[in-house]
Write a structure and sequence with these properties.
This protein is an alpha+beta fold and 225 residues long. It contains five helices and seven strands. The chain starts with 18 loop residues before the first helix and ends with a helix.
Length: 225
Amino acid sequence: MCLSRSAWPGLEELPTVTGSNIQQKDMKMAFKLRKIVTHIEEAHVEGGKALDKPITMAAVAAVIENPWHGRGYVENLRPEIIDGCSELGALIVEKLIAVMGGGDRIEAYGKAAVVGMEGEVEHASAVIHTLRFGNHYRDAVNAKSYLSFTNKRGAGGTSIQIPMMHKDDEGLRSHYITLEMSIEDAPAANELVIVLGASDGGRAHPRIGNRYLDLQELEAEKAKG
């Protein structure tokens, strides 16, 4: 289902993503931002059965220039992490919260990073695997769980997969859910795509139990011998 900017709470307040908008508002960042992409899915039917309520998943992706590109092997990535990751995290979180209509609507969350073909996977990891980046999201939704993730290398149009889990309980399998998206022109060879994802529910029709049930069953089986 395709949604217009006015069809989802908060989306109409987001600035239109054009070159001039980014230069005027967001290019003050330490990282060089080319554009921001918002992806929204709203599920109504799964397996031929209607959902009790629609499940909305959304992602906000920032396409930035890879600050380590073209410099050969860089041993110390910390200066760029310290300079740019916090403000990038804050920017993406602000936009994602607005898309979802508030942090209290978010039940599951996750993150992803893709480095272009001339970069290292470590470059993608460097941006998202730091508390300077992730804590903005955890604090905004008052979460307890760690952010599940993917980090990979790929060319423009590559599949970007954002795995999510319940923000307060890693053991709730009902919220092991993945949002998949792509950006046709990103990442370029010298770019990174940095993504945060959110869902206002778990999978459609979850019925496989959770890991706590497994633990109880295994313990009971062990006791029986």
